Amino acid sequence: MHKSQTDGAGYKATAEQLQNQVKSQEASIDRLHAAVQQLEKEKADAHSRREEAQRQLEKVEEASKTDRAERDAAIKDAAELRGLSEGLKAQNAELLSRLGRDDKPDRSRKG
Q1: Distance of alpha carbon 10 from alpha carbon 22, whole angstroms
Q2: How far apart are CA 31 and CA 38, in angstroms?
Q3: Alpha-carbon distance 26 to 30, whole Å?
Q4: Which stretches in the chain have pLDDT values below 70?
Q5: What is the per-residue pLDDT for 111?
Q6: How far apart are CA 84 and CA 76, in angstroms?
Q7: What pLDDT, on a 0 to 100 scale, did the predictor assign at position 107?
Q8: Alpha helix locations (H) across the chain?
Q9: Rounded alpha-carbon distances, angstroms, from residue 91 to 8, 88, 97, 100
């Protein structure tokens, strides 16, 4: 009977070691599971931040298009105004020239 007691004690010790290993592995699995969940959450957060950044980029690009269109329109308007201004200057110069010619004969007649 002495041998069976030793065998029983050995089995008990082995069973306890195996139970400890199972508990340790379960704890490791729990930690890994928690780490995977954390990584999944971080991945989802990163995806949300990426989508938000993409929306912001699209808004900036749209605003940039609008700004460029407004700038181009302003440049076109300025060019047209410059042309009109040059035309008015030429007309003004011609009218002043005509006024000067018309005034000279009147002065000579009176004098």
Answers
A1: 18
A2: 10
A3: 6
A4: 1-3, 103-111
A5: 47
A6: 12
A7: 52
A8: 2-110
A9: 122, 5, 10, 14
pTM of the predicted model over 0.70: no
Distance CA 44, CA 58 (A): 21
| Cα angle value 57/61/63 (rounded, 5°) | 115
Separation of alpha carbons 77 and 73, rounded Å: 6
Instruction: Report residue 30 as tokens.
Output: 């729990």
H/E stretch holding 1? none
Report residue 110 as tokens. Answer: 């009176």
pLDDT of residue 85: 96
What is the rounded distance in angstroms from the CA atom of residue 105 to the CA atom of residue 109?
Answer: 6
Query: Six-digit token pair at 52?
Result: 């938000």
